[in-house]
Each structure stands twice: as C-alpha cells, then as structure tokens.
Amino acid sequence: MSTEQTDMSTEQTATANASANGGGTAAETLSVTDNRTGKTYELPVTDGTLRAMDLRQIKTGEDDFGLMAYDPAYMNTASCRSAITYVDGEAGILQHRGYSIEQLCEHSSYLEVAYLLINGALPTQDQLDKWVYEITIHTFVHENVKDFMQGFRYDANPMGMLVASVGALSTFYPDANKINDEQIRAIQIIRLLAKMPTLAAFAFRHNMGQPYVYPDNDLAYPGNFLGMMYKMTELKYKPDPRLERALDVLFILHADHEQNASTSAVRSVGSTRVDPYSAVAAGVAALYGPLHGGANEQALRMLRRIESPRNIPDFLEGVKAGRERLMGFGHRVYKNYDPRARIIKKHLDAVFEVRGTSPLLDIATELEKQALDDEYFTQRKLFPNVDFYSGLIYEALGLPVAMFPVMFAIGRTSGWIAQWLEMVQDPEQKIARPRQIYTGERDREYVPIADRQSTSVAP
Ligand code: ACO
C-alpha cells in the first residue's frame, strides 16, 4: 500500500526508484512530492507501472477529489494485465502466448492459432480435430439472418452489414448473455468464429448482386470462405491451395495485436457484461474507421495513383514536403520493420502465380526500396507495416476495397474473443468508466425560452 509522509521539502522532485523498464518487484517505489501541500508520497511501482488509483490519495484538502491521470487516447495507460499477445515495437517482435508470429505462420493454421489465443496453449491433434469439427458444423446461420441481410440496400458497405449482422446474432442466441456460464460462453465462441466468414461472404455477395452461397463442410476454414465468396455454377467449389494458404496466413497475421482500438472497444463494451456478439460488434465498428481497418485501402489507392515506378521519386518528394503521406508506412508501436509485412511479402508470389501479377507490385517493391534508402524515412523509423502489402493480396483475390476491413475483421475475431474471455474472467476488471476533466459552465441560472439570445452552437 502507498504511504504518506509529511514535512518533506517542496523542492524535492519525483524520484523513480524503480528501474526504467519495469519488470520489478513490489518493493520498487516512486516518491512524489506534491508542491501544493509539501506532502510526499511513496507509490509502489509494479511491472514498470503506477496504479492510477494510488494517485487519488494525493489531495490538497478534505474536499479535494484527489489527483487523477489525464491521458487522452490512452497513450501511456495500461488498461489491463494480459497474457495473450506480446509486441516489442522497437525490436519488431510479435508473439502470441509466447510463440513468434513467424513460427505460427510457418507451421499453424488460423484455427490452430485461434485455439492458442483463446485457450492459452497449442492444441494436441485430438483437441484441434474437435475444435475444427465444432467450428465447421456451426458455419450456417439461421435463415432469418440471411433475410435480414437481404434487407440492406444493394450497395450497402459490407463492413456496415457485418457490424449489424454480428450484433443481430445476440437476438438469435438470447442465453449468450449468461457470460458467467463457462459452457454457454464456449458455444458462443465457436459460433462467432464459425459464422463470421459466413456473414462476411454474404455481405460480399450482396454487394455483388449475387445469390448467397451456403457453407460447405467439406472445405477447410479459408477454402470454405473462398467458396462462399466465389462459387458460381460449379457443383463443388475447389479452392486453389496456394490461395487458401495465403488467406489463412493473412487471417493469422490479423488475429491479435494486444490493446489496439477495436480490441479496446470489445473490452470496454464487454465490461458492461453484455453478450459477446454485441461486444464483438463494437470491435467491428471500431475497425470500420479509416485510421484502423482502412489503411490498406489507402495504401492500394496510393499505389494506383503513383501509376508507374518512374513517378516514385516525385511522389516521395511530395511526402517529404508534407503534401502526401506514404500509406502503409509507419506505426505507432513498430519502430522497426513490422514482422507481419515481411511475412505477407513472402506470400505475394504464390498469390500472383495463381492470379497473374499486378503492375502495382512493381511500384510497391520499388517504393519500399527507395523509401528505405532515404534518410527522411530511416531517421523517423518509418518501415512498411502490415497494410503496405495486404491490399495487393486482397486485390489479387478479386476483392473490392470495401471488403478489405471485412477480411481484417474475420482474422481479428479470434483476438477479440480471447481478450473478451480474459477480461470477463479477470477479477480486477469492472465496468470501464473513465473520468473526465470538466471544462464547461457551472451553476447557471435557467433562462426562459422567450428571453434567450441566439448563440451559435456547434451540433
Ligand atoms: N509518411 C510520411 N511521413 C510519416 C508517415 C508516413 N506514413 N508516418 C509518420 N510520418 C512522419 C510524421 O510526419 C512525423 O514527422 P515529423 O517528426 O517531421 O513531424 C514522424 O514521421 C512521426 O510520425 P507520427 O505521426 O508522430 O507517428 P504516429 O505514431 O503518431 O503515427 C501512423 C503512426 C498513424 C501509423 C503513421 O505512421 C501513419 O499515418 N502512417 C500511414 C497510415 C498507415 O499506414 N496506417 C496503418 C498503421 S498499421 C495498422 O493500423 C494495422
């Protein structure tokens, strides 16, 4: 517990006795002197963090609410303890439950990684077979879900359709709100993983004006998804194994990325103890935003605009002059090559072998080379991120750009579920309810409508 000491010098500044990079013991402390009162406090430092609630004891008097931390956009606030995903942005490391993303992409299927994220350990063959079987037999959605989706406008954005239809699943499984029941939770997890590709493919077919295709239980997870997207008159859809593998790897690469915006939305909404369909719908809604799920679309549009490798020097001059942004470069966390971009690059060739090469690939490769040779980018530690190349694969698969974030959402569903599950079982978690610094008026005298002056009020 924190202890309060008095009569210390007001000139004393906060001194961290803890090691800078955390990982310490509870004996490590931070001494803080409140220059308003002259009091000094010793606050425990654990795992390189302070507990924000320990600040509350720092008061100017009895009526003072106590000190708060102000952190818009949560730039420096840990909202949970998590054992799911480790990211070291400086070193370019991404690990799930301790396994490197490179090893998982090399050896695992997406469903195996989903099992790992959700259950904490790699499955045995029996466990994996049962898991895959359960997911496979739950891919169908109720016919009313299909009817509901058919009610959307012909040109409805597929991501908007996905937000609505995932949320709507809660009305088909009303007992999903019994989130403290382990068995009930388990079946919703299976359903979410199983039905997400079905909803995504239905949204795509709706957009294309094509009839929806039902799942095929003979196909693996990525192949079934390709079938629901592209099957036409053939009796049996046979996915190309190279495309299937590339898609599976893309799902793995997007499976989880610790406390990003959409995962934080899932945790925040889930903290109200709502059912997991509603919590995941919040994640899809967050991913819909161009700053999160939409960067790969911008990267593709940028490559199209550049048109030819010979325009790259001019384009880069525009970036350096601040007229342009190099989309698919830079990351809030990675200050090194995003390991996911390196893996995607390896799968590009296989996809282009099946679909024929894209002139945009030459532009992307040359653009990366010239940017990485340029001090502007190296000094700022700007490297390709996962979005630089993923749009090229999606385009080669014949997907319109509006489907790109939908593809992201399918993969991220496993991460959202794992983080939701960890959150609902964490005894430290409560309803997420941030504080504010109130900046508005107080104690105004009510003015009758006839006496009011017109003011311009922002909507
Ligand atoms: N092109 C050109 N300059 C850039 C880029 C870029 N893509 N990214 C950052 N910079 C510059 C900034 O202008 C800034 O320069 P300055 O120091 O001269 O002012 C410096 O690099 C630092 O950049 P910040 O904007 O402070 O970095 P931040 O961490 O806030 O932004 C972000 C990260 C939003 C990803 C940014 O790099 C960006 O806009 N990239 C392009 C969009 C993109 O690819 N987003 C996908 C991210 S991955 C994902 O969401 C799955």
| Structural class by secondary-structure content | mainly alpha
- Gap from first CA to last CA: 46 Å
Bound molecules: acetyl coenzyme *A
Q: Evaluate the radius of gyration.
A: 25 Å
Following the backbone from N to C, one meets helices and strands in this order, namely EEEEEEEHHHHHHHHHHHHHHHHH
Beta-strand fraction estimate: 5-15%
Helix content: 40-55%
Total strands: the figure is: 7
What is the mean pLDDT? 93
Low-confidence stretches: 1-26
User: How many helices?
Assistant: 17
Largest sheet: 4 strands, antiparallel
Query: What overall form do the CA principal axes indicate?
Result: globular
**Spatial strand arrangement across the major sheet:** 1-4-3-2
Structure characterization notes:
With 459 residues, the chain is mainly alpha-helical. The protein has 17 helices and seven strands. The chain has helices at residues 101-107, 110-119, 125-136, 143-150, 158-172, 182-208, 221-230, 241-253, 261-270, 276-288, 295-306, 312-320, 339-355, 359-372, 375-379, 386-396, 404-424; strands spanning 3-5, 15-16, 29-34, 39-44, 85-88, 93-96, 99-100. The protein has a four-stranded antiparallel sheet with strand order 1-4-3-2, with no helix packed on it. A hairpin with a 2-residue loop joins strand 6 and strand 7. Helix 8 (241-253) packs across helix 17 (404-424). The longest helix is centred in the middle third of the chain and has 27 residues, at 182-208. The radius of gyration is 25 Å and the shape is globular. Acetyl coenzyme *A binds at residues 292, 295, 319, 325-332, 380, 382, 385-387. Residues 292, 295, 319, 325-332, 380, 382, 385-387 line the site of acetyl coenzyme *A (ACO).
